[in-house]
Amino acid sequence: MLLAISNQPRDYAWGSTTLLAELEGRTPSGSPEAEVWFGDHAGDPADVGTGGTLDAVTGGSLPYLLKLLAAGAPLSIQVHPTREQAREGFAREAGMDADDPARNYRDANHKPELIVALSDRFEALAGLRPVAGTQRLLASLPDLAGVRALRERLGRGEPAEALRETIAWVLSGDASTEVGEIIEALATAESDEFGDALRALRSIAERCPGDPGWSSRC
After folding, report:
1. φ, ψ for residue 71, nearest 5 deg
2. Are strands 47-48 and 35-38 parallel, antiparallel or unpaired?
3. Is the Cβ–Cβ distance between 129 and 137 less than 8 Å?
4. Measuring CA to CA, which residue among 159, 122, 154, 127 is closest to residue 139?
């Protein structure tokens, strides 16, 4: 059985104002249009051409969610849980309101992702660089106090634990001065090995000045 499905774009701030409209052959709305969901997720099930929504047909059993993404600006950093963490977290937060901003787990899925680029260029940063590589990148930055502080923290003890503690420090807000100096150092940094990374970081810093973990609100 074939069903015609459709959905309305989600208006996240990082969305493009033109790409989805061009793909769908319609006039742009003038507002950011970031994603269109084609699935049976309870948060926004697709509309079925004959009436109703897709979850009524599938019972919410689809094991994937197809999204069309149209990024006009950098997306916020995302961290996805393991399957076990997702199930435990969803059960733990079951008593919270579905729209509670303090809620981390909206469903029990672990959300592995696969990206298929439809445009000629789509840049994505994924995973964490090994500490040794990050230290080489930092060596290409001017020797400001914030850069030295980051190097020193990454060099403390076992690499995985040093990385975990360093990320927590950067995102905690306690490192605002150091983060500012690291961003300042990016402006003149040069590296044959990390040229693409530096260009991406400079672009993000221009859009989200002072934000240690850039967000869709910047």
Report:
1. -90, 120
2. unpaired
3. yes
4. 154
Lowest mean pLDDT across 29-33, 41-45, 58-62, 97-101: 97-101
Among residues 210, 207, 206, which one has the least CA distance to residue 175?
210
Rounded to whole angstroms, the Cα distance separating 81 from 87 reads 9
Q: Which of 74, 71, 70, 38 is nearest to 57 (CA)?
A: 38
Give the whole-number percent of the chain exceeding pLDDT 90: 69
Q: Give the containing element (helix H, strand E) for 69.
A: strand 66-69
Supply 192's token pair. Answer: 């044959």
Tokens of 158: 């076992």
Q: Provide the residue type at 11 as one letter.
A: D
CA-closest candidate to residue 75, choices 165, 166, 200, 163: 200
Beta partners for residue 10, in sequence order: 35
Lowest mean pLDDT among 125-134, 153-162, 201-210: 201-210
Residue 95 token pair: 């008593």
Q: How far is CA 46 from CA 36, 50, 54, 99, 211, in A?
A: 9, 12, 5, 20, 35
Residue 89, SS3? helix
